[in-house]
Structures are given as structure tokens and as C-alpha cells.
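Subgroup meeting minutes
Present: P.N., E.W., G.H.
Scribe: E.W.

1. P.N. recapped why we're keeping a running log of single-chain structure predictions: easier to compare across weeks, and new members can see raw inputs and outputs side by side.
2. G.H. added today's entry (124 aa).
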Amino acid sequence: EVRLVESGGGSVQPGGSLRLSCAASGWTDAKYQLGWFRQAPGNGHEGVAAIDHEQRTTYADSVKGRFTISEDNAKKTVYLQMNSLKPEDTAMYYCAAASFALGAPLRRGGYTYWGQGTQVTVSS
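Output recorded in log:
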């Protein structure tokens, strides 16, 4: 059984940084798509960043230049480095995984596995 566990969320002032981690257990596929999504109160899930087994990355326009997704295959962990955080980045952040590279990696429909989420709050 695949399990995803996020960590690293918290409260930070505008302009600050956080690094989210998502550890995957039970994962055996050589091909994969990993993604970070967020959901603010009253909003739907928004795809933030994604990476596949060939290290191809995709970012939402709202986070380009500020967020960086990376993964450590040996540790089966995906990271989201978030810099220059803004109040509008406040949301619950979820990681997600699929067993193959997705054509639209920022759309939630292709992902099979989801973590429970970690809260990020950006406020002065």
C-alpha cells in the first residue's frame, strides 16, 4: 500500500521561506509523477508544481520563480522549496503521486495517491 506523508508546513511572514517534504512508502514503480497541490478555504485544489521520473518539472504561473520542486529517489521523498511567500500562498498543501508521467501534471484527476496535507500560513 502506498502512503504519502507531508511535513514542513507552518506559519511564516510574507517574504519568508518554507520547505515541504513528502515521504512515500510502499512505492515500487520506476515511472512516476509527483505533484504538489494546495487548497485554500473555499477554493478547489490548485496544482502548484510537479515532477516526473525523468525530472521534468511543471509549475503554476502563480509560483514560477518562487517555488522549486525536487525529489530524492533514494529517500523516496519529494520536496517543495517555497521562497518569497505571499499571503495568497496560504493553504493546505498536499502531495500526490501517479504511477506514470501525466500529460497534464497540474490537474488532480490523474493522481492516484494523496497525502493528508500540511498547513502553510503566510501572515504578518
